[in-house]
Amino acid sequence: MASGKTHFRWQAEGQFFSGFENSEILDADLVVDVEVDKSGRFTGVDLGIRGTVVVACDRCLGDLVLPVSVRQSFSVKFGEVPEGESSADEGGREIILLPETDADMDLGQIVYDYVCTSLPLSRVHPEGECDPETVKYLNSEDNGDAEESDTTVESPFAALKNLLKEE
User: Where do the domains of the chain lie?
Assistant: First the structure.
């Protein structure tokens, strides 16, 4: 790559995320902007990711569209990676160390990681927007056992008592 600034822009869609094992992202419509500033052995990368992703709602398992907005800057240094370290932090800017033998830097894993870490821990629809059929079953107090339906189960371990009775 020549010295100076170079700008890249590409679209990251559902197919991009399907290439990662165990990805919770079902679909995506993201624009990834990357500005690379190369000066000698220093390579600075400014990464911007904007758009939406589709994940499963934690409550009803329906599709949930979440906005994504990520701005991250990091530096890439080529050289020997110190034993036991994969990255460092210098002046508030993450440093990614790559072996001298790597001629290319694949940003795919970095984009995937930043998108996943930008998502909220609890992924649920706003109140009243979950699938009504699923919510009906979640709110149902009938658990299929007529004998138990008369008593209120307050402990999550109450069902374990029945295991001892059966033996």
Answer: 4-118, 132-166
